[in-house]
Amino acid sequence: MQSQLQIPLDKKIKAVYLCIVLHTVQIGVGIAGFPRLVFMEAGQDSWISIIIAAIGLHIVIACLVFVLNSYGDHDLHGVLTTTFGKLIGKIITFVFLVYFFFSFFSVLLNYIEIVQVFIFPQMSSWFIAAILLILVLYAVTGGVRAVVGTSIIFFFGTIWMMWLLYEPITYVQVDSYLPMFTTEPSAILAGVLTTSYSLLGFELLWFLYPFIHDKPKVHRYSQLAMVFTILMILIITMVTIGFYSKGQLEENIWPVLSLIKVISFPMFQRFDLIAVALWMIIILPNLILLAWMVSIGAKRVFGWKQKYYLYLVCLIAFICQYHFDSRHEINDLTGFVGEVGVYFGFLFPVLMVPFAIYKRKKGKKKDNAKN
Amino acid sequence: MKRRFKKSSYFPCKLNQLESDLKEQYFNSSPDLSSKTLNKDGKKCIVIFIDYLVNSDNLYDQVVDKIQQTPQWDNPSIKNKVPISGAQERSDIKSIGDDLLEGGACVYVEGEKSCLTFMIPRVEKRDPERAETESLIFGPQIAFTESLDTNLNIIHKRMDTSSLKVEKFVVGDTVPTEVRIVYLEDVANEDNVQELKDRLESLKIDDAMEASVLTQFIEDNSYSIFPQFLSTELPDRFCYSLKEGKLGILVDKSPSGVIAPVSFFSFFETTEDLYTRWNMGSFTRMLRIIAMVLSITLTPTYVAALTYHYEIIPDALLVSLGHSRTRVPFPPLLEALILEFLIELIREAGARLPTKVGQTMGIVGGIVVGQAVVQAGFTSNILIIIVALSALASFTAPSYLMGSAIRIIRFPLIIFAGLWGFIGIVASFAFIAIHLIKQRSLNRPYFVPFYPFQPRDIDNSIIRLPFLHSNKRAYSNNPKQVQRFPKPKKPKNNDIDEE
């Protein structure tokens, strides 16, 4: 069948890497501002929102992997075309690609803004965009091996930054978490929605699935990756809420980055400057994986070579960033991508489950008929 | 111009004619062709050879003397009497000429239908000496020489096992050079061997010149600054890698052996880490890797911090730094580039000069110029410390090529740091990391054991565990036998003071 992907064995990756790859695509530029957003909705009970969102996330991942497993060696395009026919499948995949492109673009814009606010107010946006896009181009041309490799290396290169929370933790005031369980349920639910924006990114599995060598382990490791992400978000949010007072937190757009300001080493008086520069290494896997997704998805939908789509994606992103230069526009775009993402990321896999069950039953009938 | 040689029908001929034909048709009237005519019972015989290509002892004792002792002069009996193996019967000028060039002596008895050639080459070679570029404090000190025979001899002596396999290739059209692949047949991965063979066989070049040149022809990415095949002059390093399941390449006329596939971190290993105790070995290995990282970060960080991010410099240091920089008229970028360039100058001058002058050079360059540069207000004291430290750190890399690569990457890093501060540094580091991940060595991943993540390989790559615990070969090479030796049994878990 055409939609079945044939991938040589040495291009495939182990399922263990999902643990880190899915985590790196979820954690990115959003985490810097996330604690404030969730606090503004759910207040000191934000942790309840996060945990509810986490439960939802695990269910969605279970659905997603169930769907993928029932279709065999297919990616999103393959799943959709076998279910809905060629035309509709291609259209829906294309809509997905547009959404992925916008999330790629919003990550890019947000990081550019962080750099301009924290380190170089005069550095022009196109220049930072050019640096990032060149790195993305260079990595994605290396294929899936390089794409996955970069996220793993960059993950190990930045995970030690969690230790930076040690000093802020000593300033945490327990009062900030009190009183517990007083937030309105509707506020908690709003918090859940906010949390789900920053959990997006696991849609990568739709495209990465055919490249995984040991498929039975996919479910285990993707769930593990989710646990890892949730834990990280939870810890960072709790520390941030404990560290700031209520008013302070609401005024700080990137509370996590400001948190690092209190840290100083004997060699570095202010570590936050280095941390913001290092943040590039946290968001690069994001950009690289998203660019890879868009380019390979476009190849599956329209044919032609993947690298041309990659150049196209980078070019469009580079041209479009000229038109976004105010905080408001970027904020609107990010909010929009998040809202749309809830449907694409969370709702879509659940909607696909009935089709997957139908497909499985049909498959069984066929097997029985054969026997 | 193509010379024409008459085939087969050439012999029999007159002795003088053979000599003059050889001289004029094959050797272009070369003055080096010598000959000796012998007479016995009216029969005449001529021995032709090139003076400086044959071993004269062999020529007179084993060839000329023996021929004179032969009772009857014809090809079979001469062949029988002369004790040199591999005598060839040649019947055209071209093949005789080829044999003469390889150090042969040609014997022709008048009236015979063919001519005999005996190989008695004189090979000028030096004895194996102590390793110079990769010097060790202890452990075997012998180094490879330019002679392939000597090198193979050393390897066979070190690895006295029947599974050692040596395969011969000839590379180069104008100047054919003998190349040997060496590996352990029951350990090395077949795909690797096949890949290397394919690369050598499909190679179409005029001259392989040297092992390092051949390496550049067959490595995976010729555009990268990082070497992908490890070349070493130490036979023990070479043999150790073979035992790990890697492949070795030896090139005639080259004093270095090449090892493939290797990872990035192989370039920071020495066999000395194995000879010292495991904890010392681990320490020095990590020291080298840290030194590499420091060597490429220190100066760029200085430049970035002073140009854009002075906030990160601690108060106490800021005062002395500011004081020492008050007289410096250049921006930090220029200051750092001048000093780095100076260090590279001293290194290059030291490498080109003879050893005796080299020492003076070090003193003049290092101490006099260093002092004067600071006093003249060209650079700050602190930069001198930083640059000297990073130069020192780059020299810890055991592989000369890797050390040079590290020193050279520093320059773009300094420039990017000077232009865009920490963003420039981080972006360059990200670029290097992506590059290393994309890199392959003989189609095997280069950045192993980090990616693909192989925790089992860490016991003998970045650190070195005691041999009892690291009894396995690196998984990344896909060896046929993973275990080097069975793991010793653990003693029963006794309590303190119990037997």
From TrEMBL, chain A:
Q: What is the lineage of its organism?
A: Bacteria, Bacillati, Bacillota, Bacilli, Bacillales
The keyword Kinase belongs to this UniProt entry's keyword annotation:
no
What Pfam families does UniProt report for this protein, alphabetically? Answer: Spore_permease (PF03845)
Which sequence ranges are marked TM in the entry?
15-35, 47-71, 91-112, 118-140, 147-166, 186-212, 224-244, 273-296, 308-324, 336-358
Q: Which UniProt keywords apply?
A: Germination, Membrane, Transmembrane, Transmembrane helix, Transport
Out of the domains of life, which is the source?
Bacteria
Entry's family note: Belongs to the amino acid-polyamine-organocation (APC) superfamily. Spore germination protein (SGP) (TC 2.A.3.9) family.
UniProt topology in membrane: Multi-pass membrane protein
Locations listed in the record: Membrane
What is this protein identified as? GerAB/ArcD/ProY family transporter
Q: Which InterPro entries does this one have? A: Spore_GerAB
Is the Repeat keyword given for this protein?
A: no
UniProtKB/TrEMBL annotation, chain B:
In Swiss-Prot or TrEMBL terms, this protein is called Spore germination protein
Concerning its family, UniProt says: Belongs to the GerABKA family.
Name the source's superkingdom.
Bacteria
Identify the main location.
Answer: membrane
- Residue ranges, annotated region (Disordered): 478-499
Where does the signal peptide begin and end? none
InterPro entries under this entry? Spore_Ger, UPF0353/GerABKA_families
Give the stretches traversing the membrane. Answer: 287-308, 382-401, 413-437
Where does this one sit in the cell? Cell membrane; Membrane
Give UniProt keywords alphabetically.
Membrane, Transmembrane, Transmembrane helix
Instruction: State the annotated membrane topology for this chain.
Output: Multi-pass membrane protein
